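Human:
If only I could read backbone structure tokens as easily as an amino acid sequence. I am handing you a single protein, as its sequence and its fold in token form. I hope you can help me see how the letters and the tokens relate. Thank you; the sequence and its tokens follow:
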Amino acid sequence: MTSTTEPTEPLSVEQLSATTLLRFATAGSVDDGKSTLVGRLLHDSKSILTDQLEAVEHASRSRGQETPDLALLTDGLRAEREQGITIDVAYRYFATARRRFILADTPGHVQYTRNMVTGASTADLAVVLVDARNGVIEQTRRHAAVAALLRVPHVVLAVNKMDLVAYEESVFAAIAEEFTAYASELGVPEITAIPISALAGDNVVEPSANMDWYGGPTVLEHLETVPVSHDLAHCHARLPVQYVIRPQTAEHPDYRGYAGQIAAGTFRVGEQVTVLPSGRTTTISGIDLLGKPVDAAWTTQSVTVLLADDIDVSRGDLLVPSKDAPATTQDVEATVCHVADEPLTVGHRVLLKHGTRTVKAIVKDIPSRLTLDDLSLHPHPGRLVANDIGRVKIRTAEPLPVDAYADSRRTGAFILIDPADGTTLTAGMVGESFAAPQPVKDESDDDGWDF
């Protein structure tokens, strides 16, 4: 098996522009070795600078360690280094000759599961670590459930610390079989299991001489070659309006443009579009990109769109092709991961943020909560506490143009916010998921925010 660390010279701008981009997140329980894996990945792929390595070596020596603690490459907060844990999501950017990477190293503590939701929400792949001595535990199942809920296309099971179980194939095989069965039942489309030792470097970048029974790829080889098949440019075209631009200068007296980042799809000059939720239709008369007119623009580009008709468009509206417009609704059913310490209860008054639009809403029902042990549904729990995954039914004060999350990870997602202090309460995914909803019973109208 050939090494993937070549070449070691920095990549040129031309080489970088020719490579694809993979966003991936790491997850796992406390002390499973996530930060060490990331550090080893960066170190062995020659993706860290000399001064960074020297700083890690100095910090390691000050803690009485003879060898560099590679986990310090990602544990950037002072509290993280003092406790030897990851608290916040640490983002790292690196590249090889084959691919560019954006890596989100997420915390392992149960109380920081919310950060795993943040890190995996835009990921193409999730690396879930398991300590070979402990096997699949509740937090492992929770991370698999979050990856499935967020519809992450690829999941890697990295069975770490194989050096502490004498590199036994039977240990790896048992863990891989249990996790694969669980994740498959959740609906994870692709699972790849790799036995590693992040501390020793086995099967991270270089193949392991201690596990000749394993013939699969190393972690880096898999990251470099996994297909990034989804293409948001071919999804339903959606542009959340973020800002209305009206210079009203002598040079541009009548200029009126609608700026935002294209969430999905492609927009073209001359295309008929509908403004939601109002439903008014018009035609795109121009598209400005980086101050210059273009004929077309696509997902993730930040543009200003000019419309042929003078209609009322403001921040929070959604521009969509008229032939592919989503329905608007005030009743949103979704699967959610509750991330706040305060429970989410039936009757809870919240703000719902969808794209650039924020509206008042009320939680009308919580049909079910997912039990992670056996994936059963606990019907009508009445509340969701921190890190719970469940189904909710929400009534909004104004109609919203929502897509199913299965169709669009950008316009099918929302968050619930505490109107009192702005705290994020819940991350939601519209439509069906691995947790099929129970029938929702009709409740009498609540006092207060009643829509």
Observations:
- DSSP finds eight helices and 25 strands in the chain.
- The chain has a mean pLDDT of 83.
- Residues 337 and 389 are 5 Å apart (CA to CA).
- The radius of gyration is 24 Å.
